[in-house]
């Protein structure tokens, strides 16, 4: 039986692999529609049918309602990869390309229907509103890094940016963000290698889907007891946690 491209699209999870001049490799989860749109755009610029409209920035939407732009002049190769869903432990996992994902773990006691107390581990994951990787070298001071990260940016602060990336209106010269100190930053857009940001920064209007599963911060819940455990501690134990005081936590 011959497997077609359409069959693969339905059976697989798709990953966009972007290799940069610096040797850095970026990975992004994309859906079938995003894959087909990007391939079509690349093909039209590979056979000369879209003259006069060169791609300046690779623009894509990845999982968890995040947008990404990558400066074409910094790319050496783009590859559309796929993995069979059944072979992936976390098909919808986020690729933390810049190691900025933060996690906060807490313990929560919950009562069962039988009145027993079970302990759950809740892990909250947080991403900055925007991650900006630029061509420069970070100053030799402890608080300056590359990429730059911005938290709690206002909704709609990148309004019209989508039209600019689609060449419908002129591209702005600077990206303007407010940092955590309340200071206003202006970054020349031609110095940006990668900009990843929350989708809500493009739109001023309220989005009813803001609280949908997949947005960050998100909670991941784990039960400390396996299915065979009744969740109760032994009568001789001083605690209902499944390890002793001298033992390290299992994560």
Low-confidence stretches: 210-216, 226-251
Helix proportion: under 10%
Strand content: 35-45%
Rg computed from alpha carbons, rounded to a whole number of angstroms: 23 Å
Structural class: mainly beta
- Run of helices and strands: HEEHEEEEEEEHEEEE
Largest sheet, spatial ordering of strands = 3-4-12-8-9
According to DSSP, the number of beta strands is 13
Tally of individual helices: 3
Overall geometric form: globular
Number of domains: 1
Main beta sheet: strand number and arrangement?
5 strands, antiparallel
Rounded to the nearest angstrom, the distance between the terminal CA atoms is 44 Å
Taking all residues together, what is the mean pLDDT?
80
SSE order and pairing:
Blueprint: H1 5-11, E1 12-20, E2 25-30, H2 32-44, E3 57-62, E4 66-71, E5 75-84, E6 102-111, E7 117-126, E8 130-134, E9 148-150, H3 161-165, E10 174-178, E11 184-188, E12 192-198, E13 218-223
Antiparallel strand pairs: 1-2, 1-5, 3-4, 4-12, 6-7, 7-13, 8-9, 8-12, 10-11
Account of the protein in words:
The protein has one domain. The protein contains three helices and 13 strands. It has helices at residues 5-11, 32-44, 161-165, and strands at 12-20, 25-30, 57-62, 66-71, 75-84, 102-111, 117-126, 130-134, 148-150, 174-178, 184-188, 192-198, 218-223. The strands form four sheets. The chain has a five-stranded antiparallel beta sheet, with no helix packed on it. The longest helix has 13 residues, at 32-44.
Briefly summarize what is shown.
The chain contains three helices and 13 strands; from the N terminus they run H-E-E-H-E-E-E-E-E-E-E-H-E-E-E-E. By secondary structure, the protein is mainly β.
């Amino acid at each position: 039986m011959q497997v077609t491209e359409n069959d693969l699209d339905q059976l697989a999870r798709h990953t966009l692999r972007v290799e940069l001049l610096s040797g850095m490799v970026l990975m992004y989860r994309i859906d079938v529609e995003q894959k087909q749109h990007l391939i079509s755009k690349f093909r039209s610029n590979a056979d000369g049918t879209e003259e006069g409209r060169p791609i300046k920035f690779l623009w894509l939407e990845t999982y968890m309602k995040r947008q990404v732009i990558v400066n074409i002049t910094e790319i050496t190769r783009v590859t559309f990869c796929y993995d069979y869903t059944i072979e992936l432990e976390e098909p919808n996992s986020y690729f933390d390309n810049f190691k900025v994902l933060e996690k906060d773990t807490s313990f929560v006691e919950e009562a069962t229907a039988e009145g027993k107390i079970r302990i759950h581990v809740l892990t909250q994951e947080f991403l900055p509103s925007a991650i900006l990787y630029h061509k420069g070298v970070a100053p030799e001071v402890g608080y300056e890094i590359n990429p730059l990260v911005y938290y709690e940016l206002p909704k709609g602060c990148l309004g019209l940016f989508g039209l600019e990336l689609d060449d419908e209106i002129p591209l702005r010269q600077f990206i303007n963000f407010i940092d955590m100190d309340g200071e206003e930053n202006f970054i020349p857009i031609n110095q940006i290698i990668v900009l990843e940001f929350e989708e809500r920064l493009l739109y001023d209007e309220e989005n009813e889907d803001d609280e949908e599963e997949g947005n960050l911060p998100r909670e991941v819940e784990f039960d400390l007891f396996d299915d065979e455990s009744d969740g109760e501690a032994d009568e001789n134990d001083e605690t209902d946690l499944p390890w002793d005081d001298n033992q390290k936590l299992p994560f």
